[in-house]
Each structure stands twice: as C-alpha cells, then as structure tokens.
Design brief:
The chain has 475 residues and is mainly beta. It folds into four domains: 195 residues, no CATH class; 92 residues, Immunoglobulin-like (Sandwich); 104 residues, Immunoglobulin-like, CATH 2.60.40; 45 residues, no CATH class. The protein is 13% helix and 36% strand. The chain has eight helices and 30 strands. Strands 3-12-11-5-6-9-10 form a seven-stranded mixed beta sheet. A five-stranded antiparallel beta sheet has the order 2-1-4-8-7. Strands 14-20-19-16-17 form a five-stranded mixed beta sheet, with no helix packed on it. A hairpin with a 2-residue loop joins strand 19 and strand 20. The longest helix is centred in the C-terminal third of the chain and has 19 residues. The protein is rod-shaped, with a radius of gyration of 40 Å. The N terminus and C terminus are likely disordered.
C-alpha cells in the first residue's frame, strides 16, 4: 500500500526528473562491466531489472506471473521489482551455501566473502549517498535458469541508509523507505568479478493531458480521449474519476497501464451529457490511494451567426460573422418543421461571409437555420445519430427567418425625364397602376397576412379591381 502523499510531494521538480532519466539512460552502458581487470568481458555478471504490477508480487514469489514482467531500468514504490543476476558458476556457488530454500542459500552467499550486491545512490555531491540494503525486507529468491537467479522485492518496502563511511554498504540504523526521485547503481560481485546496472526510483504518479492539449481540455462529446503518462509498471490498473466542479456530472472508469517503452493509461470517455464550460477534476487512484489529481475543464462548444440579405432568398442563404468552436454543419429547412433543403459543412473558426446554396427552392414564407456539431468528426451529417445542434444556454442554436427579411432590394433602372416641347403631349393608354407606358411598373412585395402589405388573395382582388376600372374608363 502506498503512503498517502500530497501532489506536490509526489511530483518531482522537472530538473531532478530529467537528471534522473539521464542517469537511468546509462544503464545499458553500465551493464556487464567487470572489475579488477582479471576476468574476460563475457564472464562478467549480468544485472538486469524487471518490474511488474504490485498486485503480482505474491504470484512472482510463487514462481508464477513471469508473463507480467517488463524489463525496465526504473521502478515506482507501487511496483514489484525483480533484479535478475547471472554469471557462470553462480548456481554452484549458491548450492554450496547453508539453508533449506533458495532464498536462504542466496542470502548466505551475499553475506559471505565471495559475493555482494550493493545499491548506491548516484548524483549526490553535497551529502553522503543513500545505500539500499538488498537483503532487507521481504526478499524472495528463485532460480530462473542455469546460473541465473531472480531477486524479488516489494519496491515500496526497500530501505536505504546513509553511507557515512563510503564503503558502498548500508550503515547500521536509520533505515528509511526509498523516496523518489533517485537513481541507484546496482552492482553484483562474485569472486572479484562485478557487473552493474542503474535503477531509477520514480513516484507512483500519472500526468494527464488530451491529444490536442498539454492540459486536460475535453469537449461535451463522445469518444473524448484522456491521455495518462505514467512510470507505473505495465499491467497496473488505476481507477480514474472525472468530476464536474459544482455540477453532479461524474464518471469513474478503470484504466490499465500499457506499452513497455512509453507506458500510458488512456481512457476514452463519453461526455455527451456533460455540462459545457465547467471546470473538472481528474483523480487517479491506485488501490484506493490518490496518486494524482489534475484540474481541467469541459469546453463550451459555442457557435454564432447572423443572417444577411440576398437577391435570391428562395435559393440561397447568406450568413455573416459565422464562428464555430469545432467543425459542424449549417442545416436549412423549408419552414420551421419543413424538409431539409440545404446542408453545408461548417469549419471551426471564424468567417465574415458564408453562402449556403439550397438544393431545392424554398416554398414556405420562412426558413429555419440550425448549426450542428459534427460529433463523430466524419464530415457527414448524422441527424439521427450522434450529431447534434450547437447549444446556447442549453437550447439548440437555431433561428427561423422570414423570407422577406432575407430579401435584398433590386436596384431600379433610372428613368430619364422627357424634354418638354411646345407640342401637346401624346396621350398614352392608362395602366392598372395609373402610370404611363414609358414608366416602369412598380414592384410589389407580397408577404403573408401577418406581416406588412397585402396577403396573396387581397393582392389578386386589388389587381382585378384596377383592371375593371381601366376598362370602364376606356369604354
């Protein structure tokens, strides 16, 4: 069980973290070296470290769960640690020691003059280095092959003391748990020949981000990916909870650490019902203990537009000052609940003017414009599926506009005034509007009866009355 620590204490400073990684990176170079110069390189002991999830420790002690081992030069206090040592003649050296079990005989070998295993802290200049006692705690040893042995530890139970006398051995008394972040040089020696490897001890933590941001910034949509990078052993299972601050919305899921080189614990969340524009808290727990708490937010998927005028309002729509937080669609219906007559892709960002052509002419007195979110980001409007309207204060971003409000005035052709003459003017036949034949007819705009002007029926009656009156005057 991990001790409960604050987030600040669990997260090392960046420079310390980078320095520790640099020291651990030299592990491959350090492995397999010899001391004294008397043995061949091939005869040098080999020291390799493996990690496994902490809950695999009991199975490892029983000689099982080898499939959960990951070769790695770093460990966290929540992991099981396996130090594998091998060198020619090691099997016979262990067999010659007293004891009833492999663990007892290997301990006896390490306590003899023939062999030693040390773990000395690296990178210290202003204080004595800390030294791990590799024989302390619940050490279990099992034979992993010819002249090869696995030393199995609960990494959280490892103890270290100051090396005051500089002999690379743990001093008596004052042993404490190994606190991250530190790097130790593990050296195994048998009959004067040594091999070494570096082991970094890192905090049991996780750093969250999203694919598009180094911060936790999610959208109120399905398939939202939460990326968690962690030094925990692959196979470790975490509980991850997302809570909206000041809102009852909450999700809790489990995530398993994957990948042996760049371990991660990722989640894909359905946040379709999440509130927009609220802060969230992401909490990761391991065996009920908080290992990381991160603040984030759920974005507000805003969109806006204003309608403009056009000379062809029944066949196109002009929008001004269009903006959208994510990709979506502009959907136009013929009337409030009429058929869909236009569907145009709406790109995220801002635009000054967008023209939406209709696939069919509008026949109603109004059109309804709705901005949709492309929820699944497939570029296809799925009105019966995941795609949904943008929202404003919880309501769909939709607007019904009368055709007359979209109609731009058509510029009229200027009429030249005839030059006066002394001859009597020629009398032209009267028209229904009372204008002469040379005068352009007035363009009347017919709207529905609820608006300004005549209704269609009243307009036809008025035209018929004008025609009858003209006929009577000619008669």
């Amino acid at each position: 069980m991990l001790p409960r620590r604050s987030i600040a204490a669990a997260t090392p400073p960046l420079l310390v973290f980078v320095a520790a990684l640099a020291l651990v990176a030299t592990a491959g170079v350090a492995a397999g070296t010899t001391t004294g110069g008397t043995s061949a390189q091939a005869a040098a002991p080999n020291v390799t470290t493996f990690v496994a999830p902490g809950d695999a420790l009991t199975a490892l002690w029983a000689g099982q769960a080898d499939d959960q081992l990951t070769r790695r030069p770093r460990v966290t206090p929540a992991d099981a640690l396996v130090v594998r040592v091998s060198t020619p003649g090691l099997g016979s050296a262990v067999a010659a020691q007293p004891g009833n079990t492999t663990t007892e005989r290997f301990r006896a070998l390490l306590s003899s003059d023939r062999a030693s295993l040390t773990g000395v802290e690296m990178g210290t200049t202003d204080r004595p280095p800390r030294v791990i006692d590799p024989t302390s705690g619940d050490l279990a040893v099992r034979e992993a092959g010819a002249d090869t042995y696995d030393l199995i530890y609960d990494a959280g139970a490892l103890r270290a003391t100051d090396d005051q006398n500089g002999n690379d051995r743990a001093d008596d008394g004052g042993a404490t748990t190994v606190s991250p972040t530190k790097v130790f040089r593990l050296t195994f020696t048998l009959d004067g020949t040594s091999g070494s490897s570096n082991l970094g001890v890192f905090p049991a933590s996780i750093a969250f981000s999203t694919p598009t941001s180094d911060d936790v910034e999610l959208s109120p949509l399905p398939d939202q990916k939460l990326v968690g990078r962690t030094p925990l052993a692959p196979g470790t299972t975490l509980s991850i909870a997302l809570d909206a601050v000041g809102h009852p919305f909450a999700i809790e899921r489990t995530a398993t650490v994957r990948d042996r080189r760049r371990p991660y614990a990722n989640l894909t969340l359905d946040l379709s019902d999440a509130p927009e524009g609220v802060p969230v808290t992401v909490t990761a727990r391991l065996n009920g203990v908080v290992v990381r708490e991160t603040e984030g937010r759920i974005r507000r998927l805003g969109a806006s537009f204003t309608t403009g005028t056009t000379t062809d309002p029944r066949n196109e729509l002009v929008l001004r000052n269009v903006s959208a937080a994510v990709d979506g669609f502009l959907v136009v219906r013929d009337g409030p609940d009429g058929p869909l007559i236009a569907n145009q892709r709406l790109a995220a960002g801002e635009g000054q003017s967008v023209t939406v052509p209709f696939r069919e002419s509008a026949t109603a007195d109004s059109i309804t414009v709705t901005a949709y979110v492309d929820v699944d980001d497939d570029g296809v409007l799925d009105r019966g599926g995941p795609d949904r309207p943008f929202r404003r204060d919880g309501d769909p971003l939709s607007r019904t506009v009368a055709i007359t409000d979209l109609t731009a005035e058509t510029p009229s052709t200027p009429t030249q005034t005839p030059t006066p003459t002394t001859e009597p003017p020629t009398t032209a036949p009267a028209t229904a509007s009372g204008a002469t034949a040379d005068t352009p007819a007035t363009a009347y705009q017919v709207t529905d009866a609820s608006g300004d002007g005549f209704g269609p029926l009243l307009a036809l009656v008025a035209l018929a009355a004008f025609a009858v009156a003209g006929h009577r005057r000619r008669a």
